[in-house]
Amino acid sequence: MLTAIVLIDTDPARIPEVASEVADLKGVSEVYSVTGKADLVAMVRVQEHDQLADVIADRISKVPGVVRTETFIAFRAYSNVDLEQAFALGLDD
User: Fold this and answer.
1) Per residue in 7-47, pLDDT tens?
2) How far is the first Cα of the chain from the last one, in angstroms, to the nearest whole number?
3) What is the pTM (predicted TM-score) of this model?
4) What angle do CA 13, 18, 23 make, to 5 degrees?
5) 47: domain CATH number?
6) For residue 92, is it within any domain?
7) Which residues constitute the domain of residue 56?
8) Which pLDDT score is estimated for 83?
9) What's phi and psi for 73, nearest 5 deg?
């Protein structure tokens, strides 16, 4: 599995809409609104390197309101946090 962290600059008037549209794209696992130099951060997870171009260049960058993207490809994960399990804390199965 390949993971890319994509910083997304957007038209400020469309941040929520862009976040929602990007989150719905196949290959995008999460989208966060953030403080700092980017408006949004998207986590892209795909099986093959070529799929990164499909998701980032061909889909994310073409969402109306996306101004610019900057992509970081992850080499190695140092934490194997199970987010689903973390959010389920305190809930009975």
Assistant:
1) 999 999 999 999 999 999 999 999 999 999 999 999 999 99
2) 29
3) 0.84
4) 155
5) 3.30.70.920
6) no
7) 1-87
8) 53
9) -95, 125
